[in-house]
């Protein structure tokens, strides 16, 4: 089968990858659409030096074989992290933090930039007929945005700042705007910020402070900006992952008694519900053939992916 393989240094398109065989607890998914995420770009820049395998973790597909026969033929999306099931994290509802977890397309598990992928059956979520593949493929990034209201209380009367004008910031700002909170998006590009205007205030510079500041800038400068924008006793939520380190003065966090919260993957079921209800305004994903992966990675479209059904 065809797939986009990361050899530890670079991505290589292959036509002769072996067909994956599901383990007894797994399903075999025929991938319909797979989307490129910033994490894929970071892996190609050296964020996960130990990973070798098929890239990609955002997908919609159809189950072909499964440990749960009722799932065969169903359209699904799937969570990334498969814990060991035995450790303190797995046994206390923190499977996404299991230290020996596999993570599709990121750690010890082949991802979805291929015609077929295997995945633990319990990580799959069936999507309703009303939800198109092109919208359902946003489930994973939307779930990551929903992790924030799962972690902290966002009061509708609160003012929240989101740093960043990319895809992650777009999902986060929309989710937070649904709470009724007034959301200000601080970005660098006027043309990207224009997408946010229907649900948030936008700015390229900001001289005021906020109770809650979300860093979704995708670069080490995000936290520096967040430190300038957060009020004393306020909260900074860090959503960006990147290769390399940020440099911040931690004393400022102590003196101002700022809470800093890391936030990664989130809950899939509410993300599917929100998408099904059409409550989000999502741009059209731009789809490419997998063999033209370089064009896809270079595209400046809002969301880019692969239509795996193309020949
Ligand atoms: Zn992702
Ligand atoms: Zn575990």
What report would you give on this structure?
The chain has 311 residues and is an alpha/beta fold. It folds into two domains: 162 residues, Quinone Oxidoreductase, Chain A, domain 1; 121 residues, Rossmann fold. The protein has ten helices and 18 strands. α4 crosses α5 and α4 packs across α9. The model has no long low-confidence stretch (mean pLDDT 95). The structure holds zinc ion (ZN) (2 copies). The site of one zinc ion (ZN) has 8 residues, from α2.
Give the helix/strand layout.
Elements: E1 3-6, E2 11-14, E3 26-35, H1 38-44, E4 53-54, E5 58-66, E6 75-78, E7 81-82, H2 88-91, E8 102-103, E9 116-120, E10 124-126, H3 133-136, H4 139-151, E11 159-163, H5 167-178, E12 182-186, H6 190-193, E13 201-203, E14 210-215, H7 221-229, E15 230-238, H8 250-255, E16 259-262, H9 268-276, E17 286-288, H10 293-298, E18 304-307
Parallel strand pairs: 11-12, 11-14, 12-13, 14-15, 15-16, 17-18
Antiparallel strand pairs: 1-2, 1-4, 3-5, 3-9, 3-18, 5-6, 6-10, 7-8
Helix pairs in contact: 4-5, 4-9
This protein binds zinc ion (ZN) (2 copies).
Structure summary:
This protein is an alpha/beta fold and 311 residues long. Helices cover 24% and strands 27% of the residues. Helix 4 (139-151) crosses helix 5 and helix 4 (139-151) packs across helix 9.
């Amino acid at each position: 089968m065809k797939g986009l393989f990361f050899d530890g240094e670079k991505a290589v398109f292959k036509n002769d990858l072996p067909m994956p065989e599901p383990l007894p607890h797994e399903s075999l998914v025929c991938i319909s659409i797979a989307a490129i995420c910033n994490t894929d770009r970071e892996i190609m820049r050296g964020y996960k030096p130990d990973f070798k395998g098929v890239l990609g973790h955002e997908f919609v597909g159809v189950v072909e074989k499964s440990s749960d026969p009722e799932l065969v033929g169903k359209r699904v999306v799937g969570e990334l992290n498969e814990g060991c099931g035995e450790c303190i994290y797995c046994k206390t509802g923190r499977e996404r933090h299991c230290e020996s977890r596999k993570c599709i397309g990121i750690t010890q598990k082949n991802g979805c930039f291929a015609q077929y992928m295997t995945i633990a059956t319990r990580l799959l979520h069936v999507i309703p007929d009303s939800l198109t593949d092109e919208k359902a493929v946003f489930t994973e990034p939307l779930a990551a945005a929903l992790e924030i209201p799962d972690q902290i209380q966002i009061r509708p009367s609160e003012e929240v700042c989101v740093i960043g004008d990319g895809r992650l910031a777009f999902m986060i700002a929309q989710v937070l705007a649904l709470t009724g909170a007034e959301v200000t998006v601080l970005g660098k590009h006027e043309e990207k910020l224009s997408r946010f205007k229907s649900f948030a205030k936008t700015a390229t510079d900001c001289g005021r402070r906020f109770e809650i500041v979300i860093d979704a800038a995708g670069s080490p400068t995000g936290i520096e900006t967040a430190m300038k924008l957060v009020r004393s006793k306020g909260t900074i939520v860090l959503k960006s992952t990147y290769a390399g380190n940020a440099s911040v003065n931690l004393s400022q966090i102590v003196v101002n008694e700022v809470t800093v919260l890391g936030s990664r993957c989130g809950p899939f079921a509410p993300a599917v519900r929100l998408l099904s209800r059409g409550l989000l305004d999502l741009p059209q994903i731009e789809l490419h053939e997998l063999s033209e992966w370089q064009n896809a990675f270079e595209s400046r479209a809002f969301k880019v992916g692969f239509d795996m059904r193309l020949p």
